[in-house]
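TASK: fixed-backbone design
INPUT:
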């Protein structure tokens, strides 16, 4: 008697970070149990004909901020509409907060309400009191901690003393440092000069946050990390010069991982003129030359992750630009925007896309091969992607509570048709069928594997 499947995907093209394969894929319980041509349908509870479709491992969005308009449950639902099956959230410990408590609360919130499997990063705003909490916090299954090298006048800044102290602790305990890499003091001065007073204008936003400051901060963070050999993750890389700094650190043998985001890969600073504060993101969306360099960096393996940096904030486009928050809604469009911009232009291969959206996030955060691939024994986190479906993104068909998208009226070719997590349906016919609370907490681990590149 042949093997029984709860789910059987027939006739699809399987796309992973290691290649493309025409094969059927069988699922039993929560796991992928067979990958082979012509698997028998007789004993399958449900058969999905994936002819003409791509089957990707579930997208893993490692950069989500569920602390503004969209909460943990919202973010997991919104992400699921776009084909994402796992999310890693930032639990921010602000001034006066306990890091341990904030991380504990977010894990409990996710266990109660998340529709998707989720992990958590710690986010440190008051280093002097929160850095000493890192070791206790790591026992919860949280091994990655973010520090701000910017936002000095807001008081979120971590100075070099505290940053190197944290890196020392993280290196000893198998953790990883993440830094928002921009020069805080420099930006504070330029904001005072260009974004305050009678001549202040949104068009000076990029002038106030030069790429030189991003490059300088990456260089500095990398050289601090070098001392204790602390793994270092640079989220939201935006500039050609920033890629250069990462390349240099890699050539010097440092363990450094670079991430960029769809907004930097598909928009330019013109968006500030068009959308004002809605496009205010730190670091900023930069020039076409920078965008080209980010694609090249992805191709070359200098950048290895694309994630959303979803930060859904209400903004007053007519208000004082300087007072408006940083960030934009991105978690829903991560996969379709990146897919369309990468694949339909020939910038990246399908295999490279699977690497930067799924396999490398899993490898870097110690989740591979349970997540990030389609292998026998892996979780059945699966996206069936229709490469022929056209979709026009507008605020009306998006699900973030902020009610706008930077991709207004953008037409993309290719859209997620359905998704599954650990064998359970998540997205079907454009609707979310997963229930709040069915997502599991995924502890990240120090078992970090180097990213792959084709
Ligand atoms: Zn962020």
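OUTPUT:
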């Amino acid at each position: 008697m042949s093997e029984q499947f709860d789910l059987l995907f027939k006739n699809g093209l399987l796309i992973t970070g290691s290649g493309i394969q025409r094969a059927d894929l069988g699922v039993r319980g929560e796991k992928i149990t067979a990958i082979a041509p012509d698997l028998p349908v007789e004993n399958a509870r449900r058969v999905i004909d994936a002819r003409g479709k791509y089957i990707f491992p579930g997208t893993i969005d490692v950069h989500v901020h569920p602390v503004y308009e969209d909460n943990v449950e919202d973010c997991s639902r919104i992400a699921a509409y776009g084909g994402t099956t796992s999310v890693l959230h930032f639990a921010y410990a602000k001034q006066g907060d306990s890091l341990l408590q904030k991380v504990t609360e977010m894990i409990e919130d996710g266990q109660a309400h998340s529709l998707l499997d989720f992990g958590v990063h710690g986010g440190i705003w008051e280093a002097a009191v929160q850095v000493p909490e890192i070791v206790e916090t790591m026992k919860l299954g949280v091994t990655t901690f973010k520090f701000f090298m910017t936002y000095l006048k807001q008081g979120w800044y971590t100075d070099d003393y505290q940053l190197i102290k944290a890196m020392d602790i993280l290196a000893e305990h198998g953790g990883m440092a993440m830094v928002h890499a921009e020069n805080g003091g420099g930006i504070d001065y330029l904001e005072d000069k260009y974004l305050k007073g009678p001549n202040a204008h949104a068009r000076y936003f990029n002038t106030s946050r030069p790429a030189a400051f991003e490059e300088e901060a990456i260089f500095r963070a990398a050289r601090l990390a070098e001392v204790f050999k602390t793994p270092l993750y640079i989220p939201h890389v935006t500039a050609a010069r920033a890629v250069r700094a990462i390349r240099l650190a890699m050539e010097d043998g440092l363990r450094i991982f670079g991430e960029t985001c769809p907004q930097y890969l598909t928009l330019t600073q013109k968006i500030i003129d068009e959308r004002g504060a809605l496009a205010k993101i730190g670091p900023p969306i930069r020039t076409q030359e920078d965008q080209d360099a980010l694609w090249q960096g992805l191709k070359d393996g200098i950048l290895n992750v694309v994630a959303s940096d979803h930060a859904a904030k209400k903004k007053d486009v007519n208000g004082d630009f300087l007072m408006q928050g940083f960030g934009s809604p991105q978690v829903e469009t991560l996969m379709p925007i990146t897919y369309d911009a990468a694949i339909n232009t020939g910038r990246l291969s399908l295999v490279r896309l699977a690497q930067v959206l799924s396999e490398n996030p899993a490898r870097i955060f110690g989740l591979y091969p349970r997540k990030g691939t389609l292998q026998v024994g892996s979780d059945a986190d699966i996206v069936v992607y229709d490469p022929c479906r056209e979709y026009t993104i507008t605020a009306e068909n998006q699900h973030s509570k902020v009610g706008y998208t930077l991709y207004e009226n953008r037409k993309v070719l290719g859209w997620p048709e359905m998704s599954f997590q650990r064998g359970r349906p998540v997205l079907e016919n454009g609707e979310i069928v997963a229930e709040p609370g069915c997502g599991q907490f995924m502890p990240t681990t120090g078992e970090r594997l180097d990213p792959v590149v084709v």
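COMMENT: The first strand starts at residue 7 and ends at 10.
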